[in-house]
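Q: A small favour: would you put together sequence and structure tokens for a protein?
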Amino acid sequence: MSKTFCLHTTMLALLLSSLIGSSGSANELRIMSFNLRYGTANDGENHWDKRKEFVAETIHAYAPDLLGTQETLEFQKEFLSKKMPAYTSVGVGRDRGDQSGEMTALFFKTERFELLEEGHFWLSETPRIPGSKSWDTSLTRMCSWVRLQDRVSESKRPILFMNTHFDHRGSDARLQSARLLRKKADELGDGCDIVLTGDFNAAADSEPYRALFSELPGETVFLDTYATKRPADESGEATFSGFKSSTLEGSRIDWIAIRGSWTLQEAAIDRTGKEGRTPSDHYPVTAILSQANSTR
């Protein structure tokens, strides 16, 4: 066997590996939603500087194609961008719509996806106004989104990837935010298959959950990936860890929702831990999808 043939074979294998990823299927789409815990919090031994490498390792181990992050400050986004050079990041600060303040930054694999459009809206009655607040929200909240074309998928349908973070105190704000997300998904996702990630600060039996996932006349329903793939009576659904890897019981407040021509293969809570600690005060949640073939 010639050296030239071996070299070409190796290069082809590397190219296919980069397109397919660790999953082994070119059409597979690996999703992760991860609340990073804002990097200036006074968290002592769990401060960002002491766990940031662990965060990057956890993301790298799962190798998501699409990653939605919450509580992300600009220097955290920049750190991950340097650690993840194969990804493009999109995010603006929630207070002014610039690069300062907390973001719902999202990441996607640059070679796999063509970026068609990007944008942001605020969870308020005036969603186009940066920093706007409504209802009983305690903090400014927002959603960042991108419209992508998957270069690997056989489907011709674009993907609308949305990432958000609901208020932690305002119950009406969470409910109204869920309703707004459905409306925006209709507006922005016409002709798209949709992926929505986020920290919703609400349990799976809450009004915001029902507002997002209940079937309504004339609307296509969102699907809760975790609830679809896991037994209804399964215990240990907590996604807020409090930095303790032993945390199992509690509410599942971080969700990955999908809508459109998807086949759902797997959904899970990533309970990665090291010496009893987790990389953030939330567990990442994950899902594996494939996009149905479509010429539309």
Remarks:
- Confidence is low (pLDDT under 50) at residues 1-24.
- The chain has one domain: 25-291.
- The longest helix spans residues 3-20.
- Residues 25-291 form a domain with the Deoxyribonuclease I; Chain A fold (CATH 3.60.10.10).
